[in-house]
Amino acid sequence: MVAACLEPDAVLSEIARSADIHVSQPFRWRKALPTASTPTVPTPVSRPRKKCSMVTIELGGGRCIRVESDVDIEALERILDVVERR
Q1: pLDDT at 41 over 70
Q2: CB contact burial 39-54 (16+ within 10 A = b; e otherwise)
Q3: CA dist list (Å): 1 to 10, 11, 15, 34
Q4: N or C terminus: which one in the chain shows less Cβ crowding within 10 Å?
């Protein structure tokens, strides 16, 4: 019955009468439930960015890598492994 109330061409008062419920109930259901025309979108959570600085890693032979101080450690390890093999 609730699904029938959400149909675009539904006559809510007729649905209520056929189910022997108060006429206002289908209107409350429609208002309370989201529909395809009004999708619910999660609200992005804004997180304060912490200040980060650049870190320079001297590799020798005139090579260096610059990364932000909040770099993902596992990713940095993989990068360093690749660079050291060359």
Answers
A1: no
A2: eeeeeeeeeeeeeeee
A3: 11, 12, 8, 15
A4: C
